[in-house]
Amino acid sequence: MNNSTVRDISDEELIKRLICGEYEYFKTFIKRFESLVFETVGRHVPEDITEDIAQEVFIKVFKSLKTLDNHEKIKGWLKKVSINCCCDYWRREYRKNEMSLSSLNNDGGNLLEKLESESAGDEFERKRRQLHLRMILDRAMLSLSPKDRILMELVYFDGVSASEAAEMMNMTKAGVKVRTFRAKKKLSDALKKMGIRDSNYE
C-alpha cells in the first residue's frame, strides 16, 4: 500500500475498500477522521475518558460501515455515531451514580456560600469561581436524561442548529425544539433547588 496513493484516495473509495474487506485501510480511515471524532466526543464527556469513548466510536464504525447509505455524508455519520456513544457513556454513569436532587441541593448550597466569600477581583479566585459554577452546572445536569443532556450541550453550548441536532440524534427538528424546551425547564428547576436563578435557563 503506497503512502502517496493512500493520501490521494477519496473518502468514498476508502470506505468502499473497507466494505470489500481490505481492512488494512482502516488505520488510514482512523488517521483521517480521528480529529473529528475526538473533537466531537471531547465536547460531551470528561477529558480523561475521551480517548476510551473515541475508541468505542471507531469500533462501532468498523462494525457498521456497510450500513452507511451515502458515502459523501461520512462526516455527519461519524458525528452521529460519536454522539450516540456519548449518550451511552452517560447512561452508564447515571446507573452507577444515581443521586437525588435533595443531595444536590445540600452540596450546591455549600458551594454557593463558598463562592460568595471569594474575591472576584483576584484572577486565581475568579478561575476558582468559574470552576465551582461549572461543578454546580454539572450537578444540575444530572437531573436530565442522557439524551436530553447531550441535546442541551449541542444546542446551547456548542451552538448546533435544531436541524443539525435532529440529524445527529435521529429526531425531527420539531422534536428537538420540544425536547430542549422541556430539558431547559427541568435544568432551571434543578438550579433553583440549588439556590441559583439564571435567566438563561428560564
**Class of the largest domain, according to the CATH hierarchy?**
Mainly Alpha
* Order of H and E elements: HHHHHHHHHH
CATH superfamily of the largest domain: Winged helix-like DNA-binding domain superfamily/Winged helix DNA-binding domain
Q: Radius of gyration over alpha carbons?
A: 21 Å
Amount of helix: over 70%
**Averaging pLDDT over every residue, what do you get?**
78
Please tally the β strands and state the result.
Answer: 0
Low-confidence stretches: 99-116
CATH-assigned fold name of the largest domain: Arc Repressor Mutant, subunit A
Task: Give a structural overview.
Helix content is 73%, strand content 0%. It is mainly alpha-helical. The protein has two domains: 1-98, RNA polymerase sigma factor, region 2, helix turn helix motif (Rna Polymerase Sigma Factor, Chain: A); 99-202, Orthogonal Bundle (Arc Repressor Mutant, subunit A). Helix 4 packs across helix 5 and helix 5 packs across helix 8 (146-157). The longest helix is centred in the middle third of the chain and has 23 residues, at 74-96. The termini are far apart.
